[in-house]
Each structure stands twice: as C-alpha cells, then as structure tokens.
Fold this protein.
Amino acid sequence: MTVVGPFGLSVRDQALEADVQTGLAAVEAGLLDATKSDVPFITEAAQHLVLAGGKRFRPLLVMLAAQFGDPYAPGVVPSAVVVELTHLATLYHDDVMDEADVRRGVPSANTRWGNSIAVLTGDFLFARASHTLADLGPEAVRIQSEAFERLVTGQILETAGPSDGRDPVDHYLDVLSGKTGSLVAVACRFGAMMSGADENVVDTLTQYGERLGVAFQLADDVLDIASDSHESGKTPGTDLREGIPTLPVLHLRAAAAAHGRPEDLALVELVDGDLTDDTRHAEALRRLRAHPALEQARRDTVRYAEEARAMLAPLPDGYAKAGLAEMCDAVVHRAG
C-alpha cells in the first residue's frame, strides 16, 4: 500500500500508483509552466500558492476518473491543470474577501502584497486557465464556464445570505454545491471525458464529484473550528473571526432558536459579536469545540461523503473505484 500525493490516498495497485504519480508530476510541471510570466514579479505572485503545496485534491480526482478510459489521453493532464489553476485563483480572491492572513501555512498573497495584487493575480490565473482550456475544445470550454458561473453564483449567494423564509442550513448547502461542488464535479468529469470513458461513466463520476466536493467543504468548516494551524494550513477560526456562517455556527443558531437554552443564546451572542478581540475569539472557539453543533456538522460531512460513495455503485469494480471510495474516507477523516 502506497500513499499518493499530499492528500494521502492509499493505492494498492502498482500500475495505478504509477499512473497517478506520473500524472500528478505532470500536473505540477504544468502548473509551474502556466504561472510563468515575462514579468518576474507576476511569476512570483502567481506561483506563491503553487509552491506552497496543497493537497492537489482536484488533480488527483482527474487522474482517478481517467482510469475509466485511457489515462494517457492527451487532454487528461491539461484538464487537471485547468481545474487546479481555477481553484488557486479562487483562493487568492477568497483570502481578500475573508481578510485571511495565512494560506497553506504561508502568508496569504493579500498579506504579503496587498489586496489589489492578490485580486489581479487571481485574475491572471483565471486567464492562464482559459488559455489552456481553449486547446481542449469547445465542449470543455462550455463545461468549465458553466461550472465557473455556478461557483461565482454560490459565492454571491453566500455573501447575500438566505432569502426571507429560507432555512439557512439548506441555503448554505446550496451555496456549497455551487461554490465547491461544481469545480470538484468538473475535475471528475474532465478526467473521465478526456480519457474517452463511456458517457454513463462520465455522468456517474460528475455526480460523485459534486457530493464529494460538498463533503470536502463541510470538512473544512469543521476544521476551521476544531483544528490547529498545522492541520489546516490556515489560522484556526478564520471564518469565525470574519463572521462567515459556516455549518457549525448555523447549527448553533438553529439550536438556539429552537430550544432557547441560555448557554446557546449566550454563545450565539458571542459568535455574532466582535471577534477581532483575540480573547473573545479564543473563547468562542473553545465553546464551539465543546458544543453539539460541531458534532452535527461532522455528521453532515459523513452523510455527503456516503452519498458520494453510493454514486460509485454502477462503476466497474477495480482499484480506481476503490481509490475513489477511499477519497470519501479521507474527507471524513479530515473532519475528525
């Protein structure tokens, strides 16, 4: 059994291991090539998060999905580069919106160079992703553009909040389907499609990716509360400090509204107050870590991961299918 990639997938077949390792190495080279500019400063800023590492979750899914066709097909690696570049670009923008100080264990681009450079660098990465995408054909362009529209729509809906009468948890899960699930679904779709897999296989893997993507983001929600910076690569409670309503907080508010327990109402007041003060922030984290809302968010993570696993049932048995199932386990493990 060999562990492949920073995400930690265990591979039990030497041929699959070789294919995945070779593919991820090619993606890494492609990312470095795509982030080069004639202007050295742009190269430095664009490669800031590439060189910081990362799980390469989406490229890994591309490589596994490609196993259901020809994993050596010429479009597989470039499509993985496109998906990862798009993801990286969103991180630059997210850190500006969230005023984050740390990303992947290093100072965020906005901390190092300011918001304007961070936003423009994200735009540069989007442009480079589009350049690579153009060589993959009009169908790939259409798929990516639809996913990007969903991603942006999800971000807008998160910022705007739920409409009157809409359950905040349901609204949030819809947000995550667009904001995170859409791009993870494209990773699986591209891998299968570029490898020439059967259309039914492509559809199955796309649905798997959507659910896995939501589970992945829910695990991040749990990590934001439960982890230290070594585990998550960013400052614990970043979303909490910025007032971003992640799932544990939404479950807390629902419990407070439904039952009116004084301790829940007091914690809601603390969470909704000014958490720029380090003492208040630390107290909010401590109390949330002990609250049932965090465990409820963990259960939701498991539910989406199990839904993703169930989507794999029609696929032919083999090491690639087992690897995709193990990705569900890995996501749940991240959430504790």
